[in-house]
Amino acid sequence: MPLLPNSRTEPDGSAVIRVLSYNIRSMRDDTDALARVIKSCAPDLVLVQEAPRFFRWRKKLARLARAADLVILTGGATAAGPAILCSLRATIERTEDVLLPLTPGLHRRGFATAVVRFAGTRLGVLSCHLSLQKDERYEQGGMLLDRLAGMGVEHAIAGGDLNERPDGRTFRRLTDGLTDCWAAAPWGGEHTWTPADPYQRIDAIFATKGIEVLGCGVPAGHPGVTGTDLRAATDHLPVLAALKVPAG
User: Fold this and answer.
1) Closest Cα partner for 157 from 120, 200, 111?
2) Distances 241 to 7, 22, 50, 123, 233 between C-alpha atoms, Å
3) What share of the chain is helix, strand, coil (3-state, %, to 5)?
4) How far apart are CA 89 and CA 78, in angstroms?
5) For residue 230, which of 18, 36, 56, 62 has the smallest C-alpha distance?
6) CA distances (Å), 222 to each of 1, 106, 149, in order?
7) CA–CA separation, 111 vs 85, rounded Å?
8) How far apart are CA 92 and CA 73, in angstroms?
9) In this predicted model, what pLDDT tens digit does every residue of 146-180 receive, in sequence order?
10) What interhelical angle do 57-67 and 31-41 show, nearest 10?
């Protein structure tokens, strides 16, 4: 498997960044394996789903970030699960955690969002975990697109656990306006669930037009990422993307 490009800044101010999307199941599994997987991917941004939300949740998420040489950017319990971690390469402009409308009897959902800068670039970022219920999920897909459009940035990325395959109507709603990074430049593995027997892709990273996708997929076989750690870390496989963001 070819290696993804490393993070770098180009002479024109554009930036190559690595983005990881990962459902970490509230860190209920092997957190050492989880940290090793994340650190080995050398991400600039980690779009987390199912971050810890209850007792001492900030301390747990901070411990994971520190073990992976990252810091907490935003999210966690304040976004009902989604969070964003980042490397010190990112300059933080602003953050906002968004709680979505609650449907009685269903789990509360939210978005973790931020605007960051890498070198001469400015980038909107959103981490999501969409509903298990198809009609609510479709509405949340629309809210995601509206949120990205309202961030006041030319370039943005979104990623997370969609609870839906690419042929689903919410997934298709997102790809009507965004680039599905796996479809644009497949790399590594495709299927994200389950780690023991991956057979479907329900986790994804999306980018607005103008962002170049250099490669995207499950980093199985990536240096330092072992099958043992992937199976032990959580109940999803991560998605890693290398993206080139234009200066702006």
Assistant:
1) 111
2) 11, 12, 20, 15, 19
3) 25, 35, 40
4) 24
5) 36
6) 8, 37, 34
7) 14
8) 8
9) 999 999 999 999 999 999 999 999 999 999 999 99
10) 50
CA gap 126, 158 in Å, rounded: 5
Strand, coil or helix: 12: coil
Contacts of 105 (CB under 8 A, 6+ apart): none
CA distance linking residue 99 with residue 225, whole number of Å:
33
Helix (H), strand (E) at residue 161 = strand 155-161
Which residue in 164, 244, 169, 232 sits closest to 208, CA to CA?
244
| Structure confidence at residue 248 as a pLDDT band (50, 70, 90) | confident
Helix residue ranges per DSSP H, the chain = 31-41, 57-67, 134-149, 169-177, 181-184, 227-233
As given in the structure block, the two tokens for residue 207 are 């980018």
Q: What does the alpha-carbon distance between residue 13 and residue 168 come to, in Å, rounded to a whole number?
A: 37
* Coil/strand/helix, residue 156: strand
74 neighbors 95 (Cβ within 8 angstroms): yes
What is the amino acid identity at position 226?
T
Average pLDDT over residues 220-225: 96
Distance between CA atoms of residues 184 and 212, nearest Å = 9
Rg (CA), the chain: 16
Question: Which residues on adjacent β-strands are paired with residue 216?
Answer: 186, 241
Query: Can you give the pLDDT at residue 85?
Result: 98
3-state DSSP assignment of residue 154: coil
What's the pTM value of the predicted model, to 2 decimals? 0.98
Helix (H, G, I), strand (E, B) or coil at 240: strand
